[in-house]
Amino acid sequence: MKNFNFHARTEILFGKGQIEALPKALAPYGKKVLLVYGGGSIKRNGVYDSVIKLLGENNFEVTELSGVEPNPRIETVRKGAKLCRDNQIEVVLAVGGGSTIDCSKVIAGACFYDGDAWDIVLDKEKITKVLPIVTVLTLAATGSEMNKNAVISKMDTNDKIGTSSQEFVPMASICDPTYMYTLPAIQTAAGTADIMSHIFENYFKSEEDTYVQDRFAEGILRACIHYCPTAIEKPDDYSARANLMWASTLALNGLTGAGKGQTWSCHPIEHELSAYYDITHGTGLAILTPRWMRYILSDKTVSKFADYGVNVFALNPDEDPYKIANKAIDLTEEFFKKIGIPMHLSELGIGTEKFDEISQKLDRKFDDAYIPMTPQDVKKILEMCL
Amino acid sequence: MKNFNFHARTEILFGKGQIEALPKALAPYGKKVLLVYGGGSIKRNGVYDSVIKLLGENNFEVTELSGVEPNPRIETVRKGAKLCRDNQIEVVLAVGGGSTIDCSKVIAGACFYDGDAWDIVLDKEKITKVLPIVTVLTLAATGSEMNKNAVISKMDTNDKIGTSSQEFVPMASICDPTYMYTLPAIQTAAGTADIMSHIFENYFKSEEDTYVQDRFAEGILRACIHYCPTAIEKPDDYSARANLMWASTLALNGLTGAGKGQTWSCHPIEHELSAYYDITHGTGLAILTPRWMRYILSDKTVSKFADYGVNVFALNPDEDPYKIANKAIDLTEEFFKKIGIPMHLSELGIGTEKFDEISQKLDRKFDDAYIPMTPQDVKKILEMCL
Question: How many other CB atoms are there within 10 angstroms of residue A131's CB atom?
Fold first, then answer.
């Protein structure tokens, strides 16, 4: 186990009706709030009205930034940072999913940065000071509500890049599972694929004695597999929504990656796909993951895949490890199909045209991955996804 | 799943050599440090020297309080609170296991309380302000390094009582697994029993849809069962020590109890045993737990015990649930025996003399437990432990 620092300082206020705690959660930071959200979903499901009512009743001064994109753009960050400066904002309130929270984080940092906001995406060392961030989560997926990460897109150069800062970690996050009752099935599915991918990225590593972390990882995967079909079939099943929501937060708050090293594999490839084609992050991950698994299955990785099969899918540990591993990968792919994710890039209108460009952009990116990959490897995996 | 707040704000600095981060961890709070520790073990294993050297080199002013008891006494708390006031202490540094950390927490609160320190043990509402606490952990057991709890004893009245405050949660904890290399085997065993008991107390609850929490709980139990025998056989096995240490922190930082209610069962009984006989907490828990399990096994609890057997001991899920449950309880008892814990109260010189008094002291305590128990029930369980 490698040394690690774990500091998930966010106060999680979890459960039905926790929105009532919002004024108290914001109060320590000031009265001037930038309210950041995406499209109209929070207006349709009543979350926007609840927030505005509570902020009004408690005399907060609200400036709004709406229209954050599913892959949030640097232009929106710039707009938010300007709003913060112009209105002496004291705390940023993100109401939405990972895109809205990620965008809010970079806004909260960019408002103290003199140069262009894109600089702090490219170089996290340039993040010096950050406004406190509070979130109201409406989609279980990225874990952004309890971590230091943010991913921002710059579409004119086909860049989708992650940045991070300990100061980005939200001060408090309100996680009410009922806010997911109105989610379209595909968003529930894609969000779950994102949760699972965070686990896979941390689970498939060379470190062999991160036993506690790996059992946690398997527990989260089992929760996703157990509850996602229920949440799709019965969107207002509280138990299903609650477990998926809590799973998403825990999947990427540092717990399952603690004590491990190495670069992630599917996420960087998916970021390129999104940067070129603006596809849903979770969908891209679901398409890539089983193909990447098949591509890297070897004598070096088979025992880890067998662990995965035994501990997540309850496969028979006495079988041949390759048999267990292949079965586990099959079951992974079948699960994504079952929850309704289109499992071929061609179904999203993506052909081979950009595969060379995308692969080259990732040159040397995977030198330190679980299984190092060259641009040729990436291209082959993309071809398996067609 | 019930609503919950999760706020484990502690920065965990985990791994070999993390002691070097101590000055930086203390720095935000001031220069005047109360260094709290127990017996001579940290002097024998070099941890004391490392701490003193680092504090000296970085110009901290150190006041020392040594001799914290294994079941820390209120007298020691009073002494510590006076030292804080007399020396204008700004931060309390606990170096040791749970007893030292618990004692430090109540000292940090008592120094701001005008009345007697025992008041804030009896009534946590009286805790108004608390000095910041930093810990250097030397024993994997109580999880006090990342939670709000503290247990203090008052031996003249045979009281051992828990108190808590969100302000007790340490600001930072240094967890170096190599500090456990010199632990006597029985302390490794008793510490592991304590970790497992924290899990059992949270796992055996009526809430049925805390799926993520229960898989985490099972993962921690598996880690204890997997690594404790190795740590005893080979005290300097880093992987074993690291997993046990991280398991102890995660077992009681709020994760496995989130979304659940109900009073604990074995801990309150053990607290009474310790208050009367000053026995090691973990030993008392290991003796009580399998007997409590047998006593409460019924049609109401059998499916939870079967889950435990299948997910922790990989028992065959197709067997009769009672068969799985009984086998799982047998394996629990065998495990504690295997790691060298004396499994009968009589081996500790404890007879039936105080059983009535202890049981009566717990009257109505378990009205809201997983399985409610009367003083008669408690007495029967104690008799099973003889």
Answer: 23
Considering just the CA atoms, what is the radius of gyration of chain B in Å?
20
Provide the pLDDT for residue B40: 85
CA distances from B156 to A133, B78, B278 (A): 49, 15, 12
Helix (H, G, I), strand (E, B) or coil at A366: coil
B346 sits in the region (left: phi over 0; alpha: psi -120 to 50; else beta) called alpha
What mean pLDDT is reported for chain A? 97
pLDDT tens, residue by residue, B160-206: 999 999 999 999 999 999 999 999 999 999 999 999 999 999 999 99
Helices (H), chain A: 22-26, 41-44, 47-57, 74-86, 98-110, 117-122, 185-203, 211-233, 238-251, 266-277, 281-296, 302-313, 321-338, 355-361, 375-384
Q: Does the structure show a pLDDT above 90 at B13?
A: yes
What residues does A65 pair with on adjacent strands? Answer: A36
Q: What six digits make up the tokens of A269?
A: 């490839």
The domain A11-179 having CATH identifier 1.10.3080.10: the answer here is no
B57: pLDDT strictly greater than 90: yes
Rounded Cα distance between A310 and A306, Å, is: 6
Residue reference for tokens 């961030």 = A133
Q: How far are the Cα atoms of B128, B305, B319, B326, B329 from residue B309, in angstroms, in the given order?
A: 44, 6, 11, 9, 8
User: Contact, B336 vs B291, CB < 8 A?
Assistant: no
Helix (H) or strand (E) run with residue B34 in it: strand B32-36
- pLDDT at position B198 is 97
**CA A47/CA A43 separation, integer angstroms:** 6
Q: Are the Cβ atoms of B5 and A17 closer than 8 angstroms? A: no
Query: What is the least distance, in Å, from the CA of A144 to any CA of chain B?
Result: 16
**Pairing of the two strands A91-96 and A133-137:** parallel
User: In B, which residues are within 8 Å of A13 by CB distance?
Assistant: 5
- In a 13 Å sphere around the CA of B184, the CA atoms on its Cβ side amount to 7
What is the pLDDT, as a whole number, of residue A39?
85
What percent of chain A is predicted at pLDDT more than 70? 100
| pLDDT tens digits, A222-269 | 999 999 999 999 999 999 999 999 999 999 999 999 999 999 999 999
pLDDT above 90 for A40: no
Q: How confident is the model at residue A230, as a pLDDT?
A: 98
CATH architecture of B183-384: Up-down Bundle (1.20)
Q: Rounded CA gap, A370 and A15, in Å?
A: 37
B287-309 per-position pLDDT tens digit: 999 999 999 999 999 999 999 99
The residues near A311 (Cβ < 8 Å, ≥ 6 apart) are A215, A218
Chain A residues in contact with B15 by the CB 8 A cut-off are: 1-4, 259
Residues of A with CB under 8 A from a CB of B: 1-18, 209, 211-213, 215-216, 218-220, 222-223, 226-227, 238-239, 242-243, 246-247, 250, 255, 258-259, 314, 317
| Best mutation target, B212, B220, B224, B256, to test chain A (most A CBs within 10 A) | B212
Q: How far apart are the two ends of chain B, measured CA to CA in Å?
A: 38
Look at residue B39 in the predicted model and tell me its pLDDT: 85
CA end-to-end span of chain A:
38
Residue in A177, A88, A174, A99 with CA at minimum distance from that of residue A135:
A174
- Assign domain A184-384 to a CATH class: mainly alpha
| Contact assessment for residue A121 and residue A160, using Cβ atoms and an 8 Å cutoff | no
Backbone φ and ψ for B378, nearest 5 degrees, come out as: -60, -40
Going by C-alpha positions, the residue among A300, A270, A299, A306 that lies closest to residue A285 is: A270
Q: Average the pLDDT over B24-33 and give the result.
A: 98
- The residues spanned by each domain of chain A are 11-179, 184-384
A260 Cβ partners below 8 Å, 6+ apart?
A2, A202, A205, A207, A210, A213
